[in-house]
Design a protein that fits this description.
The complex is a heterodimer.
Chain A (H helix, E strand, L loop, with lengths): L1 H23 L3 H21 L3 H29 L15 H21 L7 H7 L9 H9 L1 H21 L16 H24 L7 H17 L3 E4 L4 H23 L10 H24 L3 E4 L3
Antiparallel strand pairs in A: 1-2
Helix pairs in contact in A: 1-2, 2-3, 3-9, 6-7, 7-10, 7-11, 8-9, 9-11, 10-11
Chain B lengths: L2 H26 L3 H27 L2 H32 L6
The chains are: A mainly alpha, B mainly alpha.
Chain lengths: 312, 98
């Protein structure tokens, strides 16, 4: 008890300290690096709270992919404005205090509301857990995400697609090559890639498969696959294209199509909309979601409408 | 405490010592290369000792193999990123590029 309490208190203090450093730090680059550290410590906190699914999502998406996207954005900022390198791009500092106070009040209110919640046995979580057998999967997180609140998950896919389309709309249209093609590649990079990229595919498929009965699922698996794509485009193995190839267009909307198509099919078959007819359907939808999550994340990082293999 | 627990506690403590030393080196050493030198000791030896201690506590072949895999992957990532950072540092100073 004693030592684990110490660890929890250290984690909580560390999180608050890191968050403070991220928003109030003197340099943008430092803030980005500390944001990644914040995500990793947050993942530890989720693990301590017995929420391994969230811990993995936080580490893969919150720290990993978001960190890569932020670093890429920083690089573009420096390219666009070299003399401002190292300067903090903070907008209006006088907004910081009111926003901080309002956020504090909001967090306090949510905490207070959480304390007023009725005890365990009447909450939605308990109902969902009791009905878990009907979902066909034994991991409660996957069951809730795809069966009990499938509508939310479907809309989340829509949000991801919209975010990608929005980023394309504001992009200049010119594809940027993120790889450093002008300098020779270090010998170790190829060796690293030949080991790590197959591993990301293996881990992604494992997470997808494990999502039915253990921590894992489409979002974590998609983020891991996207990380493989990030590595490949960072090292110039995948190069940007000017237009999105047809296959990649299909992949971008595949998750939405399969999920909503399955939901509509069940509606016309006389069941509830978005209800899934069995475990196989859950895995089918999860697989489609995984690749429809991975591709836009990788494309966002590459700042490109599409990707192709080098030399094609 | 069994002998196994005593040994693994000692290994954990030794691993933590390497992490501590590596972190102090990272914070206190003057330039990129000596900082990397300190950091990779923490990554390689510290992680190895911690994994070894957990292997002893885990008492199963599966756990042992998983921990070995974790150590090897950590080693790989540390080696390559250390190499890249050192190379970048040399190139920025206008020296030879490896």
């Amino acid at each position: 008890m004693g030592i684990s309490l110490v660890i929890d208190v250290l984690l909580a203090l560390g999180l608050v300290g890191l968050a403070l450093q991220v928003v109030a730090g003197p340099s943008l680059f430092r803030s980005i690096v500390l944001f990644v550290v914040f995500g990793l410590v947050m993942a530890l906190a989720w693990a301590r709270l017995h929420a391994p699914d969230l811990a993995m999502a936080e580490a893969a998406i919150g720290a990993g992919i978001t960190g890569a996207l932020l670093l890429m954005t920083y690089r573009r900022l420096v390219e666009l404005n070299p003399e401002k390198r190292g300067e903090t791009y903070l907008g209006s500092r006088w907004l910081a205090a009111p926003v901080g106070v309002l956020t504090g009040v909001l967090v306090g209110l949510i905490g207070w509301a959480a304390l007023q919640l009725p005890p365990g046995d009447t909450t939605a979580g308990t109902l969902a857990r009791d009905a878990l057998d009907e979902t066909g999967v034994s991991n409660p997180v996957t069951g809730v995400l795809l069966v009990f609140r499938g509508y939310d998950t479907l809309l989340e896919m829509g949000v991801l697609l919209l975010a990608f389309l929005g980023a394309r709309a504001v992009a200049s249209g010119r594809a940027h090559s993120p790889g450093t093609s002008e300098v020779s590649e270090p010998a170790l990079v190829g060796a690293l890639l030949s080991l790590v990229v197959p591993l990301t595919i293996l881990v992604g498929i494992y997470l997808l498969r494990a999502g039915g009965h253990a921590p894992g699922g489409a979002f974590q698996a998609g983020a891991v696959l996207a990380a493989g794509g990030v590595l490949l485009s960072l090292t110039g193995r995948l190069v940007p294209t000017d237009h999105t190839p047809l296959v990649q267009r299909l992949v971008l909307v595949l998750g939405l199509l399969v999920f909503s198509g399955m939901g509509l099919f069940m509606l016309f078959a006389g069941s509830a909309m978005l209800s899934l007819p069995g475990t196989w359907a859950i895995y089918l939808v999860e697989t489609a979601l995984m690749i429809s999550i991975a591709l836009p994340l990788a494309l966002l990082f590459a700042q490109a409408p599409g990707l192709k293999g080098r030399g094609h | 405490m069994s002998v196994l627990e005593i040994v693994s506690t000692g290994l954990l403590a030794a691993g933590c010592f390497f992490y501590l030393a590596g972190t102090i080196g990272l914070l206190r050493f003057p330039d990129v290369h000596s900082r990397l030198h300190a950091l990779t000791k923490a990554d390689n030896v510290g992680l190895f000792l911690v994994c070894l201690a957990l292997t002893l506590l885990g008492e199963s072949l599966r756990v042992a193999l998983l921990l070995l895999l974790i150590w090897l992957l950590g080693l790989l990532a540390a080696t390559v990123s250390c190499h890249l950072i050192a190379r970048h540092s040399i190139r920025r100073k206008g020296g030879r590029s490896g």
